[in-house]
Amino acid sequence: FDMAENPLRATATGDHRFNDRLPSESIEDQIRRQKQYQQFITEVEAIDRAKLDRSNQINFDIFVQLLRDRVTEDEFETYLIPITNREGFHLDFVEAPNKFPFNTVKDYENYVARLHAFRGYVTQNIELMREGLKKGITLPSEVLGGLLDRVNPHIVDDPSVSLLFAPFKKFPERVNESDRERLAQAA
Question: What are the helix and strand counts (H, E) for the chain?
Answer without folding.
Answer: 9, 0
